[in-house]
Write a structure and sequence with these properties.
The complex is a heterodimer. Chain A is α+β, with helices and mostly antiparallel strands. Chain A has nine helices and nine strands. Chain A has two domains: 83 residues, Beta-lactamase Inhibitory Protein, Chain:B, domain 1, CATH 3.30.1450; 146 residues, Rossmann fold, CATH 3.40.50. Classes of the chains: A alpha+beta, B alpha/beta.
Chain lengths: 291, 224
């Protein structure tokens, strides 16, 4: 009775929506499409990079590696640097090798290939004193000097602190990563400094400021300014809180609430280590200060 | 039939169908299309933004008037993405009134400065907030990992004398970026964050606007 078989009609309708959905996907997420291309390009680069050796000519290296970057949009690439040094001609070509924040174009998303007089002489940042810009700063020293020189009270029950991550202070760090870093520091303290009393976030904000977490702009410089106020220090004393640890990316800033002094603990001595290792390293380094 | 009913339900409160719009791409291309059709014309509210109270700004011992135009009160941002209208005016009114109360001794709502309706004689001036622009953008990996809604809201503030003479005008922009999760599929929270940041910039930067500095100095001289 039907002019067309209902089963076929259903399939046609389904197919229509599928095609339209795909097209919309591409239209709406054109940028996401570009990002996928970049992911593919980075994977392609990783496969090809092994074919390149120190001592290869620039032409050879570029003929192998440049095609891997061809699908990356121009705005996500980094122009080569060229200069004379000690009578030689130095050229540095940057290849996108990491999917860190592509829009900000920070150095840590690239690997530099350095050519001296047309010959590949080094790969990576070490010979260039490290990347100059990071999406999240990762510090080289295991523990900052200021933090080590602190004369912290270590007797049982004397230290009460909160470990916090603030998006106000690190807007580019995903909240999930920040929370993971907080867990690592908390774990490190529980293991290595069991005498430290860990105070929950809400209790900290209520105790020190009499406010809810979002009502305080929690940034390194604002905390520094707040701790110069006698009323804030008085509240901290009365609530029994002694320290605040503010976690940012792979580093932590430690504030002594009574004095307003601050120090820094960092994640790791290695620039390129996996995220979980950096997280655990930060936890250990912070705990070392309090143990 | 149900779908037709839903399509006709314009300007209704957004429902779960709308939230499906921003699910991660590819796997939900078809539901996205259907949801876009269903949720066209829907109106959504954003959570009440929180005012940053610490570090508190230097309090100004003056009475200030605040004028909220109808346009400001009723401001909505219509997202191109889903044709959803986000109510930004109403929460902004409340937030910025609170912000002014943090800055000034007393805040009173007034009619348009310079209009025929009389103003309180002892007002130091009138501030008119406006929303200049708003936008929302879905950022996907690796531009943002996890995927997040990046939102910005820009306010303009116009400071006038009680008789309507303009004294200063400046803008502040707040940004908010909240990750997309299955419990939080829309940019609602990002709007809240953006407005919070803009209000913080307003209160913390108020004393730094050169024209405002001049006006405050004049007010201080007048008192002396």
């Amino acid at each position: 009775m039907y002019p067309i078989d209902p089963g076929v009609a259903l399939k046609l309708v389904y197919g229509f929506f599928l095609v339209m959905g795909f097209l919309m996907d591409k239209m709406i997420f054109y940028e996401g499409w570009e990002l996928d291309e970049s992911h593919t390009a980075i994977a392609h680069f990783q496969r090809e990079a092994g074919k390149v050796q120190i001592g290869d000519s620039k032409d050879t290296v570029l003929s192998i590696l440049s095609p891997t970057q061809s699908r990356i949009p121009d705005r996500w690439r980094k122009a080569p640097d060229k200069r004379e040094q000690d009578g030689s001609f130095l050229e540095i070509y940057y290849f996108r090798t990491s999917p860190v924040d592509v829009e900000s174009g920070t150095d840590d998303g690239f690997t530099p290939f350095v050519f001296r007089d047309g010959i590949l002489v080094s790969i990576g940042w070490r010979t260039l004193d490290g990347p100059r810009t990071f999406i999240d700063p990762i510090f080289i020293d295991p523990v900052g000097e200021d933090a080590q020189s602190w004369d912290l009270p270590t007797s049982s029950g004397r230290i009460a602190l909160s470990v916090l991550f603030s998006q106000d202070d690190a807007p580019n760090t995903p909240k999930s990563r920040g929370e993971e870093m907080v867990k690592c520091v908390t774990r490190g303290l529980t293991k290595a400094a069991p005498h430290v009393r860990l105070v929950p976030e809400e209790e900290f904000f209520h105790g020190v400021f009499g406010l809810k977490p979002d009502e305080v702009m929690l940034q390194v410089h604002t905390i520094g300014a707040l701790l110069t106020r006698a009323d804030i220090r008085q509240r901290a004393r009365e609530s029994g809180l002694t320290h605040l640890i503010l976690v940012t990316g792979f580093s932590a800033t430690i504030f002594e609430l009574a004095s307003g002094r601050m120090g820094k603990a960092n994640a790791t001595a290695e620039i390129r280590v996996s995220e979980p290792k950096s997280c655990e390293a930060l936890g250990r380094n912070v705990a070392r200060i309090f143990s | 039939m149900k779908a037709v009913t839903l399509m006709l339900r314009r300007h209704a409160t957004c429902t779960a169908e709308d939230t499906a719009l921003i699910r991660p791409r590819r796997m939900l291309a078809l539901p996205m299309l259907l949801a876009a059709t269903i949720s066209t014309g829907c109106v959504s509210s954003v959570p009440e933004p929180v005012l940053v109270r610490e570090p508190r700004p230097e309090a100004i011992p003056l009475r200030i008037g605040v004028y909220d135009s109808l346009e400001f009160r009723n401001y909505t941002y219509r997202s191109d993405f889903s044709d959803t209208a986000w109510i930004l005016g109403k929460p902004s009114v409340q937030l910025l009134h609170e912000a002014l109360r943090l800055l000034f001794l007393e805040v009173v709502e007034v009619p348009r400065p310079g209009s025929e309706a009389g103003l309180h004689g002892d007002l130091a001036g009138v501030i008119e907030p406006q929303i200049v622009s708003a936008s929302a953008k879905l950022l996907d990996r690796p531009y943002s990992n996890p995927a997040a809604w990046a939102v910005d809201v820009t306010y303009r503030f116009i400071l006038s004398s009680p008789n309507g003479a303009p004294l200063a005008s400046w803008q502040v922009t707040g940004w908010g970026k909240e990750p997309v999760s299955f419990s939080q599929l829309t940019p609602r929270r990002s709007y809240g964050r953006a407005m919070r940041e803009a209000a913080w910039k307003f209160t913390s930067g108020f004393h730094d606007i050169p024209e405002v500095k001049r006006w405050l100095a004049e007010q201080a001289d007048r008192k002396d």
